[in-house]
Design a protein that fits this description.
Elements lengths: L2 H26 L1 H8 L5 H17 L1 H14 L2 H21 L3 H4 L2 H30 L6 H5 L1 H23 L2 H6 L4 H18 L5 H4 L14 H5 L2 H21 L3 H7 L5 H29 L2 H23 L4 H19 L2 H6 L7 H29 L4 H20 L30
Helix pairs in contact: 1-5, 1-7, 1-9, 1-11, 2-3, 3-7, 3-20, 4-5, 4-7, 4-20, 5-7, 5-11, 7-20, 9-16, 14-18, 14-20, 14-21, 15-16, 16-18, 17-18, 17-21, 20-21
């Protein structure tokens, strides 16, 4: 890969990292600020309230996917990426200054809700804009590898959030963290987003988008729901193939720390350290799996994920509950994350490879956001609901069932590795028998 391609990957990924830092620190620090906004004495009830607001952010993601996906298809990937980071900066700043229940009653929770709505708008467009940008900016023979950096940057954002949490846990007392220390990551997130805004203002547009005037979708139809409906099969495919992956991802990343402390009984610091170490390994696995998909195809990795998640989720979650200490918890967490790497490393490029350039951002954004609103955003809340009802193991079966549904989709979908992004939708997306090194370089 050339220097220019690495530069595009770096700029696209850096912004994505800050976006997801802001998104995930809400979940990571929820155990500390839940009591600041909700007066309930039961810890699980407080977490359910904060998880409910977390889920609301996901329900704004389809709206953000539609609005910012339209911007990405009509104005360019650069314009969409710049707008998403602006919204995220504003939302992080709102959470940082939100008044507590003792000061403004439920007014503070209302500010929290507004901030999460803005985050939902931002992330709803960020995923598709970065997925299309990273996919289009890479050599056709390296699309899996290049697009895998989307989840590298997403995970890096979460690692930074957890790392900051570990530092604050050591530097501040528990009382200070519950009182005001939880605001620190949101201040940092707002400042980081401002820096990324400058980087994205100077980034280069992808050649595939600039050359797309006559490919796949007419100019006046770019980014419209009418054009998306013409590719409704692909849109429903995105929803179905996302279902199992997003539930598993949020279970083993966002919810894992709470599960280890709230159910497995590990100290909060130990639970945070387990997630932190596991996610570092997870981030390193993404490019390796993405590169593997460039050699053997996307479907083998997706199928491996779905089979593993269907069969292993219940035993892994059950054993995690009884792990008892750092090393067993880390080993089981790593096993789970290795399994879901088959999905996370390549799902961005798979979805982008399904749509023509003129509808690609919206085609990825809206169906993906719908799937996340229904399954990913509610995963934590569903888990806590099962726990509150006294049947926590029911959630394990729920995750396995979602993976089983996606497995059926992976087994029946077509391979997308050799798709020519500039010809998707023109009837010339792939040439039978054409070797990979004969594909035109975008």
């Amino acid at each position: 890969m050339g220097r220019d391609q690495w530069k595009k990957i770096w700029v696209g990924s850096a912004g994505n990292m800050v976006e997801w830092f802001d998104w995930f620190v809400y979940a990571s620090f929820a155990t500390y600020f839940a009591g600041a906004f909700f007066p309930e004495s039961n810890d699980t009830a407080r977490l359910m309230n904060t998880a409910g607001i977390f889920a609301v952010g996901f329900f704004m993601r389809p709206v953000g996917g539609w609005l910012l996906g339209r911007v990405g298809d009509r104005k360019g990937r650069k314009a969409a990426l710049t707008l998403t980071v602006t919204l995220m900066s504003a939302s992080a700043l709102l959470i940082a200054v939100a008044p507590t229940y003792s000061v403004a009653g439920y007014g503070g929770a209302a500010v929290l809700l507004v901030a999460r709505l803005l985050q939902g708008l931002s992330v709803g467009g960020e995923y598709a804009a970065s997925a299309t940008y990273l996919t289009e900016a890479s050599d056709p023979k390296h699309r899996g590898f290049a697009s895998s950096f989307q989840y590298v940057s997403m995970t890096a954002g979460q690692i930074l959030g957890l790392g900051l949490l570990l530092i604050l846990q050591q530097a501040l007392s528990s009382e200070a963290l519950h009182s005001w220390g939880w605001r620190i990551p949101f201040v940092i997130g707002a400042l980081g987003a401002a820096v990324v805004f400058y980087l994205r203002r100077t980034m280069l547009e992808t050649e595939v988008y600039e050359e797309s005037a006559d490919a796949g979708v007419a100019g006046d139809q770019k980014g419209t729901l009418k054009a998306l409906w013409a590719h409704k099969r692909e849109a429903f495919l995105v929803i179905a193939l996302t279902m199992g992956g997003t539930v598993a991802y949020y279970t083993y990343t966002t919810y894992l720390t709470k599960y280890l402390s709230n159910s497995a009984g590990l100290p909060k610091q130990t639970a945070t350290l387990v997630s932190f170490c596991a996610l570092i390994v997870f981030a390193c696995l993404q490019p390796l799996a993405g590169r593997l998909s460039d050699r053997i195809g996307r479907r083998p990795l997706l199928i491996t994920f779905a089979v593993g998640s269907t069969l292993l989720t219940v035993p892994i979650m059950t054993m995690l509950k009884h792990a008892g200490s750092f090393w067993p918890a880390l080993g089981l967490s790593l096993l789970a994350l290795v399994v879901i790497t088959g999905y996370t490393s390549i799902n961005a490029c798979v979805k982008a490879e399904l749509f023509p350039t003129g509808i690609r951002a919206l085609g990825v954004a809206l169906p993906y956001a719908i799937a996340n609103a229904l399954f990913g955003g509610t995963a934590e809340y569903v888990a806590l609901w099962f726990k509150d009802a006294g049947i926590e193991s029911g959630f394990f079966w729920y995750v396995a069932g979602c993976a089983a549904v996606s497995l059926v989709v992976y087994l029946t979908m077509r391979e997308t590795r050799d798709i020519d992004l500039g010809r998707v939708g023109t009837g010339e997306a792939a040439v039978p028998g054409q070797k990979r090194d004969q594909l035109p370089v975008s």
